[in-house]
Design a protein that fits this description.
The structure holds two protein chains of two kinds.
Chain A (H helix, E strand, L loop, with lengths): L2 E9 L2 E6 L10 E6 L4 E14 L6 H14 L8 H4 E14 L2 E3 L10 E4 L6 H4 L5 E8 L2 E9 L8 E4 L6 H15 L3 E6 L20 H4 E5 L8 E2 L2 E2 L5 H7 L4 H14 L3 H7 L2 H7 L6 H16 L3 E2 L7 H9 L3 E5 L5 H23 L2 H5 L4 E5 L13 H8 L5 E7 L7 H4 L4 E4 L5 H10 L8 H5 L5 E5 L7 E5 L2 H25 L1
Parallel strand pairs in A: 10-18, 10-19, 11-16, 11-17, 12-13, 12-16, 14-15, 17-18
Antiparallel strand pairs in A: 1-2, 1-7, 2-5, 3-4, 3-7, 4-5, 5-6, 8-9, 8-21, 19-20, 20-21
Helix pairs in contact in A: 4-18, 7-8, 7-10, 9-10
Chain B lengths: L5 H16 L15 E2 L10 E2 L8 E13 L3 E14 L2 E6 L3 E6 L3 H13 L10 H23 L5 E5 L10 H14 L2 E6 L4 E3 L2 E2 H13 L4 E5 L11 E6 L8 E6 L6 H11 L10 H10 L3 H17 L4 H7 L3 H6 L3
Parallel strand pairs in B: 1-9, 3-7, 7-8
Antiparallel strand pairs in B: 2-11, 3-4, 4-5, 4-6, 8-13, 9-10, 11-12, 12-13
Helix pairs in contact in B: 2-3, 3-4
Classes of the chains: A alpha/beta, B alpha+beta.
The complex binds adenosine-5'-triphosphate and magnesium ion.
């Protein structure tokens, strides 16, 4: 038990302690304050570290530094009894009392001068039962890893997740880890939309979801290009595309907009096929000449481009959506690799799939007996600010608002949470906050987070790659997390699978 | 607010300027008890002794603290303590005497003083202090010398014992006690050095120590030095040899240092040991053990407030009439100046 110092103040929300000279503790580190009078412990998080000295008078610092600088030039100096005179002052936010196995919010003070020590694994034991089945990494105290697994519950998927970080801080690594964990756990559906095409095989030098030992059984892959492994082709049906989808993805003039709506009104979900099939002049006729030929021409050109992409068929039955939904319902991970597609196609496919999932789950909802057994599904979207911006009424913002009821959750991944609509972001119950350089991004998350993280500004600013804070109403405080490096997590998965197989071996093989 | 007359200011400025420019001339006026002394000889640049940094050795420092915890005019409750800090290879150990409270009134002042004096000197004092404050001050001084005896008993041969203040037996009748301390140090081979933060040595109109510090800086720049002061004419009260010493090349201050070297050792040797102790950047040019012990024994405002509170509580439990006592202690200055 490493004795660090003693409490010197200051209030129930803001504790300060004097630490022994040279005793190192870090921003973000979780410490234990012993309440010896009541036989319980207070966990507290370091939010700032200051200098302290037993100094006679306020100008001691300047004078002493001045004397040292003089001494550097002539005569030298020797700071006597450094350990006694100098110290550090830690400022902490109390997290809560651990009293036996229970955790309580810190509403009272610890006694004056209570002892402060470094936290040990046992101090966090109470967290273990609060941890969910989808693993993300280990508990972190400063930059030290504590061997307590941190995970979120898959049951919380429909409450939506936000993953936010500046580029390169480890968003994709975290998503791969969550997906791998979902495969291992096998209780939830996860639709992973991968516009960078980085999840299947992994970036060069890294590994991907195809390396997850359970992938063969628990992952279904779609791709528009050839991948080094079993996969299906991306194909959606023109019937599944709605006018709003195009409106959300491309700029249209008011006239073109109206024409699109008119097409939809006239042909229902056949509108795209009809528009593709007929000549512009015919369409103008069919729409009772309410629209100029030019408007129809623009629309036709764009539809042609979509139809020619090879991802959209006229055939209602060929679509991938059925397979995707079935896989999700059997609690599998569906990876949709759109790495080789232009952005508007990628978004179109994503939109169609997301809507298909939501609508299907909505239908199951009508049958309570079936709905009870429907595994929650999570749809992950990279660069989510593209579809969750203020003005966008996309299927994704609809899922954020309505999905919860139907067990469909959205996992928005973004470098710029400030571009996401406030209403939408407030729907995310669980936030993974990794290193975020931009203050405005941090401010947005501070307001959106389900725990008070206003004191954690210093910590968030100093997060390193793979270090995160998890906030959610399901954990007692903003949890510091060291995300597993995906490759390490895989190694561990393989090791534990081997262990399992060996154990299972004699039983199965013997008779 | 009174009107400030410019002529008044100019006249005062003229006086100060002339006084500060006076050469090191002899003049009169001494106060034996307080150690205010005129140094008669002329200052000569040739007398400066350059000091090197000596060997670090075990050093202890003695100091005392005193305060008036309760003041009702005709009677007071004083508090005194004394203690020493021993520094050996960078590690300091403090030995502080428990606090002693001295309740005393104008009427029983001589008896109380008699008792305290006898404890230290086994003889009756030749006089009684003028005021209750000076009684407390003398009691502290006695306590410091007694603690110096304890420190010597605990120190090994070759160590250094630092005293806060000069080796000056100012209090009437105290000489045998100081002599006892000096003898004990001699017998044990311990060097005794008294360092005065506030020297009362004057040369003509000027304070001697800063005047020499200025001269030393002008003549030698950034250097350690000592300047011997001849106080032989005060040999009846003064112990050891007196110097003004600049103990770190970059220090802003010089100090009066009285030295009784251990047998067979020189004053210079002792002063150079002091140089080795005076390089803490918090107190550049002042021996660190003295700074340290000062902080150990100081009876600061908080401690005094705490003492006053416990004292008042005890007055009540002892059956005293606290209301009356508080009224006796009221001071209209506090009303006038705030803080009451
Ligand atoms: N938890 C972690 N532990 C160790 N290394 C990590 C961790 N997370 C990420 N990394 C490493 O950091 C690098 C960037 O990670 P990643 O691609 O996940 O970042 P990103 O936030 O998704 O970046 P981008 O914004 O470019 O998509 C990778 O090389 C990855 O291996
Ligand atoms: Mg990424």
């Amino acid at each position: 038990m490493e004795y660090l110092g003693r409490v010197i103040g200051r209030s129930v929300r803001h504790l300060r302690f004097r630490a022994f000279y040279g005793m190192e503790f870090q921003l973000g580190e979780i410490l234990v304050i012993e309440d010896e009078e009541r036989g319980r412990r207070l966990l507290a998080r370091v939010i700032d570290i200051e200098y302290g000295a037993d100094a006679p008078g306020d100008d001691w610092w300047e004078r002493t530094a001045g004397n040292m600088m003089q001494g550097d030039g002539k005569g030298g100096f020797e700071m006597r009894e450094r350990e006694r005179r100098l110290f550090e002052v830690g400022a902490c936010t109390p997290l809560g009392f651990v009293d036996g196995g229970t955790f309580r919010k810190p509403k009272v003070l610890v006694p004056h001068f209570s002892k402060v020590r470094r936290a040990e694994e046992a101090d966090f034991a109470f967290l273990t039962e609060k941890m969910g089945d989808i693993e993300a990494g280990l508990l972190r105290s400063g930059d030290r890893k504590v061997p307590i697994r941190v995970g979120i519950s898959g049951e919380a998927f429909p409450h939506h997740i936000g993953v936010f970080a500046t580029t390169g801080m480890g968003k994709s690594n975290l998503m791969k880890t969550l997906a791998a964990s979902a495969m291992r756990c096998g209780r939830y559906g996860m639709l992973v939309l991968d516009p960078h095409g980085e999840y299947f095989a992994g970036a060069p030098g890294c590994k991907g979801l195809s390396h997850v030992p359970e992938a063969a059984e628990r992952m279904v892959v779609f791709s528009s290009r050839s991948l080094p492994g079993a996969h299906n082709t991306i194909k959606i049906s023109a019937h599944e595309i709605k006018v709003e989808d195009l409106l959300n993805l491309q700029e249209y003039s008011d006239a073109q907009r109206e024409a699109l709506h008119a097409l939809s009104a006239a042909f229902g979900n056949e509108w795209m096929i009809q528009a593709h099939t007929h000549e512009s002049e015919e369409l103008v006729e069919m729409l009772h000449k309410s629209f100029f030929l030019e408007s129809i021409n623009v629309i036709k050109r764009r539809i042609k481009r979509i139809m020619d992409s090879g991802k959209v068929t006229r055939d209602r039955e060929v679509s991938m959506t059925r397979t995707v939904i079935d896989a999700l319902k059997s609690a599998k991970v569906v990876l949709v690799d759109t790495g080789s597609m232009p952005e508007h196609e990628e978004l179109l496919v994503s939109t169609v799939l997301a809507r298909a999932v939501l609508e299907n789950y909505q239908r199951v909802y009508e049958r309570p007996e079936d709905f009870k057994f429907l595994p929650p599904a999570l749809i992950t979207m990279e660069e989510a600010q593209r579809v969750l911006g203020t003005s966008k009424g996309t299927i994704f913002s609809r899922i954020a608002r309505e999905g919860r009821k139907f067990k469909v959750g959205l996992c928005a991944i973004s470098q710029q949470p400030k571009l996401i609509d406030n209403q939408v972001i407030s729907q995310f119950n669980t936030l993974f906050i990794l290193g975020l350089a931009d203050k405005r991004d941090r401010d947005i998350l501070r307001d959106a987070s389900k725990q008070d993280i206003s004191d954690l500004e210093n910590e968030i600013q100093t997060l390193m790659v793979g270090e995160a804070l998890v906030t959610s109403p399901f954990v007692p405080f903003a949890l510091p997390l060291a995300v597993y490096k995906f490759e390490d997590y895989l190694d561990e998965m393989s090791a534990s699978q081997k262990g399992k197989k060996q154990k299972a071996g004699p039983d199965k093989g013997f008779y | 607010m009174p009107h400030v007359n410019d002529d008044e200011v100019r006249a005062a400025a003229r006086y100060v300027s002339t006084a500060a420019a006076q050469d090191f001339d002899a003049a009169g006026g001494i106060d034996h008890e307080r150690g205010v002394l005129q140094v008669r000889e002329r200052i000569s640049k040739g007398k400066f002794i350059p000091l090197q940094r000596g060997q670090a050795r075990t050093a202890a420092a003695v100091d005392g603290g005193s305060a008036i915890v309760m003041d009702c005019g005709s009677f007071v409750v004083g508090a005194i303590t004394a203690g020493h800090v021993t520094m050996e290879r960078g590690k300091a150990t403090a030995h502080v005497q428990p606090l002693r409270l001295l309740p005393v009134s104008q009427i029983d002042k001589p008896c109380v003083y008699d008792e305290i004096f006898k404890e230290a000197l086994y003889a009756a004092p030749p006089d009684a202090p003028e005021s209750l404050e000076s009684l407390v001050g003398r009691a502290r001084n006695l306590a410091e010398w007694l603690d110096a005896e304890r420190a010597i008993a605990a120190l090994d041969k070759g160590s250094l014992l630092l005293i806060d203040g000069s080796l000056w037996a100012g209090t009437p009748g105290i000489r045998p006690l100081v002599a006892r301390v000096a003898d004990a140090a001699q017998k044990k081979g311990i060097c005794l050095a008294g360092v005065s933060k506030q020297s009362k040595l004057y040369t003509g109109y000027r304070p001697l120590v800063p005047a020499l510090a200025r001269l030393g800086k002008r003549e030698f720049g950034e250097a350690c030095w000592a300047y011997p002061i001849d106080l032989t004419e005060y040999a009846d009260r003064q112990f050891g040899e007196t110097f003004v010493a600049h103990l770190h090349p970059m220090a802003d201050f010089a100090f009066r240092v009285d030295v009784c070297p251990a047998p067979g050792r020189s004053c210079q040797d002792a002063l150079e040991s002091l140089v080795a102790l005076s390089n803490d950047p918090g107190y550049l040019g002042y021996p660190y053990p003295l700074a340290r012990v000062h902080n150990e024994v100081a009876l600061g405002g908080e401690l005094c407030t705490e003492l006053e509170v416990s004292l008042k509580r005890a007055i009540s439990t002892e059956g005293g009439e606290l209301g009356a006592i508080e009224e006796y202690g009221r001071d209209f200055h506090k009303v006038l100046d705030g803080g009451g």
